[in-house]
Design brief:
The complex is a heterodimer. Chain A is of the alpha/beta class. Chain A has five helices and eleven strands. In chain A, α1 crosses α5. In chain B, 35% of the residues lie in helices and 28% in strands. The chains are: A alpha/beta, B alpha+beta.
Amino acid sequence: MQACVIQFPGSNRDGDVMRALEQASGKLPVRLWHTETALPQGTDLVVLPGGFSYGDYLRCGAIAARAPIMDAVRAHAARGGLVLGICNGFQILVESGLLPGVLMRNANLRFVSKLQHISVVRDDTPFTSHYHKGQPIKVVIAHGEGNYTADTDTIARLEGEGLVAFRYCDANGHIGAANPNGSINDIAGIYSPGLNVLGLMPHPENLVDHVVGGIDGRGLFESLASFHSTQVELAQS
Amino acid sequence: MKARVIVTLKEGILDPPGKAIEGALKSMDLPGVASVRQGKIFDIELTEADSAKAEALLKDACEKLLANLVVEDFRIERL
């Protein structure tokens, strides 16, 4: 699987996600500077990493969403290519129009930085096949603007079409018991209608090694690697 | 030409920073304060001299970058 991690001024989890992807797929991703206008030939997955692009000036992700590379990312998504936006990457995805809604300031006004559980809403997507439906997984959260909201029609559509990817929950998987930021319906991540674009606030890339307290994040990257292997097999048969 | 763009949250959108500022003002012996909504101001200098064209340019700038129309409104004032 050839992954491409976009680096914006202020990205700071690009190295972490590259390591997680290399661990899962055996292949080191390409790191691409945001002023480029094309993705490397053969890119399967584009990752918008966490961080504080442009110092969160104007609105989180707003300036990065208008970076030169984003037209190529939009075209990749429109072709059905995989796009993963984590934390600031999720904020960039909503600002760029690749996902609906907006990430507002946390309802309690606090920057939250802690371990958190999220519930896997569905296990039949390229991002979640190594988990099971309803599984609570431990992740890291670190954000000040993760309070997902959208208009009533958009929320109804996301819920009705099964596009909610993850919900905040407690360690036992109880949804509604541990919302860290006021996000509507405990939403921690959402898919595009084609299920090829995922944006989520938590950092699965930061729990892929026992040495830092857990490996629940590995499943997401292993799911992506498996999805790609299956695609290659299908193409060859 | 100089213009001022004012971006504010739409009505009904929760504004936690505004609420915090409101709480602070109310605690400062300023009992006349009913509510506070926080917004942003951009003072912009333009090379465009034609006011209709300038207005169209600023509207475009608001829609493309300065405001997130999902949750924000904008208005443009000529200075």
